[in-house]
Amino acid sequence: MRKRWGELTTNELYSFLKLRTDVFLVEQRVDDEELDNRDLEPTTEHWFCADDTGTSAYLRVLENAEPEYRDARLIIGRVVVRADRRGEGLARRLLSAVIEARGAEPMLLHAQTQVEAVYARHEFEPFGEVYREAGIPHISMYRAGTVRSS
Questions:
Q1: Which pLDDT score, from 0 to 100, does residue 28 have?
Q2: How far apart are the first and last CA of the chain?
Q3: Which residue in 8, 25, 67, 127 is deepest, having the highest Cβ count within 10 Å?
């Protein structure tokens, strides 16, 4: 499912914020600010899967006014899967949906190195050196836009 800020219900918002804080703050002990105001931007897209327990997987797509790297103005981030649903391919499913919808546009993401292969399967290529973000090793990855035939 894809929604922008104004389309989210309070239950959807609570559910994906709970998932993000459970994984990033509690499980991974990330000490960076989780609520950075980017969720509120009118161009931010919230992509998520839900089940009877709530949000099972989530990612967001930010749109920057200026490219952060090469020509990539779209930034995929906050990719997260609930612990009891890991290994089912939910993150891959969300990435595939984003690429289906927005794949003509170049994209960037900052991947935790442990899941770099997930993004590589979607034609994201690493660039630069490994760095620590929120205490976790990351690598920046770029995906060129694809030309769609008409």
A1: 83
A2: 26
A3: 8
